[in-house]
Amino acid sequence: MLKKVIIYTLLLLPVFAMAQQARVPMLMPSMSRVFNEAIVYPTESQTGLAIFFRLPYDRLVFSRNREAEGAEAFITEVKVNVELYKDGRRVTDQNWTTQKYASSFEETKDKLKDLTGVVHFKAEPGVYAWRMILNDQPGMWRSINLPDFSAADQIGRPFLLKDYAEHSFLIQNLSGNASFGADALLAVFANTKTLHWKLLRIPDKVMQRIQERDIRDRNDSRTGRRLGLGIQDNDNPERMKPLTDRADMPLPAETKEVAKGEVEKWLSLGNVRPVDSGFEITSGDQKMAIVPLQARLLEDGHYAVVLETPTSKTHYIFSTLWRDMPMSLLNLDVALESMKFIVDKDELRQLKRGNTSERAERFRVWWKAKDPSPETPFNELMAEYFARVDYAATAFQVGAKELDGMQGDRARIYITKGPPVKTYRVLPDSGGVREIWEYPNGQKFVFEAASSLDPFVLLK
Question: What is the DSSP pairing of strand 178-179 with strand 313-321?
């Protein structure tokens, strides 16, 4: 009975949960990927193009800063160059450089701590290609259409916002994806009086095919190869095939309508200026439509928003992305085995019975019953539990053979009680080492290891 009660004592953090088993590739954890986002916007005479980027710390090369300690103990120098091409010929490029500091080696490896920035251009309307180069390492080529915002009934390229205020708006900056478990807004510059929208769900299998094609195109883009030409030139844009922009991807025929309506929220904008986190704006004559997606209520998956005026139509494809999804949720067998700390042997045996779909359904039902917010698809409790599982599996490994951290007493206490507020070690007279954990409620746990090669055992 005690094990069943323990689960309710877990600390609830604002993390959002995935359902059960291995996902379509776009739904996997970000694996510390570099994100970049191209957004077009109106200017007085030309069309603006802003390339936003998000660089996780563990993708940057930090070194020890010999001239400082504390918050500046480690330093990295970052250089981003973005090239803009039209008809295979470079039009212009922009450089962005900075230095960034970290206080510890652990911080330099943080996958969720980011360096963000933006470079921007102004150009005549038309179809272009752009490429981001990070520290002299070229990225993939991507196409982008710069519309003429002065044209009547014009719909620009949609993009996702986190939020907006009177003088600014904050973009998602997740390579066109929506952050899973958090609300998002679709924004689009539109020179029209009315705008209708539809939100469509794209089946996973359909998106899988799109992504497989995208992977092939990525490989072609990296090698500078056009299908059937046999060209292997790594840095000749005249012979390279840019990846299709999300706003130009064909809309799949197999979709299911989730919601629809007419745009009711319009912003009147004047000057639009890109900054690292989004745009600074002033009031003016340019019109921006805002579509509230209520993304935190969306089931995990792939979607398209269709925007339509009486004479024009466009769409935008996006997916949910859970950056800090626990790795232990990627494999159903691992996830079930990790529940041994909160269910008894008989119940765990029952959860493990049957084929994959049967076990996945029982797993889903079990955690849904414990969901603190059942009105949404996001199960904060499940996410917190498996985040602890991930931490314990690596943090408590011991010995030359790296004994699985999940097998020790420290893992059991950490997973069921959460992180202690204070830990320290002492050397007892009997030899070995003792590790003491203290919790806010006064609880204290004492572990002892006979040597550095032995696991810690709970004494009291």
Answer: parallel
Q: Could you tell me which residues are beta bridge partners of residue 254?
A: none
CB neighbours of 119 closer than 8 A, spacing ≥ 6?
Answer: 50, 51, 80, 82, 94, 95, 96
Mean local confidence (pLDDT), 38-55: 93
Residue indicated by tokens 């939020």: 163
Residue 26 has pLDDT above 60, yes or no: no
Instruction: Count Cβ atoms within 10 A of the Cβ of residue 70 and give its class: 0-12 exposed, 13-18 middle, 19 or more buried.
Output: exposed
Mean pLDDT, to the nearest integer, of 400-414?
77
At 238-293, the pLDDT tens digits run 566 788 888 888 999 999 999 999 999 999 999 999 999 999 999 988 899 999 88
As a whole number of angstroms, the distance between CA 78 and CA 100 comes to: 8
DSSP characters over 89-123 = EEEEEEEEEEEEEESSHHHHT-TT-EEEEEEEEEE
User: Nearest 5°: phi and psi at 162?
Assistant: -80, -45
Judge contact between 158 and 305, C-beta under 8 A.
yes
Specify which residues 145 forms β-bridges with: 127
3-state SS, residue 147: coil
Which residues does 3 contact at the CB level (< 8 Å), separation at least 6? 341, 342, 343, 344
Half-sphere exposure of 6 toward its Cβ, with a 13 Å CA cutoff?
A: 17
Tokens of 62: 């930090």
Measured CA to CA, the distance from residue 319 to residue 302 in angstroms comes to 4
Amino acid (one-letter) located at 120: H
Distance CA 48, CA 192 (A): 19
Write the CA distances from 406 to 41, 47, 352, integer angstroms.
51, 55, 19
Distance (Å, whole) CA 459 – CA 192: 71
